[in-house]
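We include the pair:
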Amino acid sequence: PLTIGSRGEDVRTIRTWLNRIRRNYPAIPAISTTGGDTYNAEMQRSVQAFQRIFNLTPDGIVGPTTWNKIAYIYVAVMRLAELDGEDIPLPTDRPSGTLRRGSSGETVRLAQYFLRVIALYDDEIPPIAIDGTFGPATENAVRTFQKMQGLTVDGIIGPATWNALYERFLGINQTTGLAVTYPGTPLRSGSRGDNVRVVQEYLNTLARAYPLPRVTVDGIYGPATENAVQAFQRLFGLTADGIVGPRTWERLVGARLLLR
């Protein structure tokens, strides 16, 4: 196991993996390279943050269980990053409308991105290009997905297929560790901790694309964070109560994932 004082290439590997993972999990502190190949207190804090997020014993020791989990999440984030979905447009709600062969545009690209992500984990779905054109390949992928989901197999993306695509997309991101699971308790004024930091980081990331105020990432749910949450809720058609419950959490996570 790796503990305070450990040295070597394994320490460098864990540092690299955690620094990449934190782009999806901003509650994990960055690890500087000044420590070289030594497992120091800074790295221990990052490991503990990772362990808390993934319900491991937060002892700051990289034993077999923690090593394997870090490796698994690193591979997962790298696989999705390869899809290059950074400029996919964010929906302000769950995607809707009808797409069929011959459709084109940004909404088609969003559907193709969902299908590409799903295809990474469902081998039956053929990988397709994210080109904004609903051609035969996209139609075939839609038909395959519909068959797997028990939907009407018509190759058309309507409300039922959109909902299934979105749910599968979020499910993959949660089970692979790319989405932080709802903590189970609403976050509100006075809340503190890593989950508040996640909300703050997500809000700041979304502020690059939306008219949202930026906040200090300090893990304290104060008036500024509450105000930013309310702005987000109004923008996404949610009740603007400033409380991050399950619905607001889902929207934050979904929007952040699409803005990778």
The CA atoms of residues 22 and 225 lie 21 Å apart.
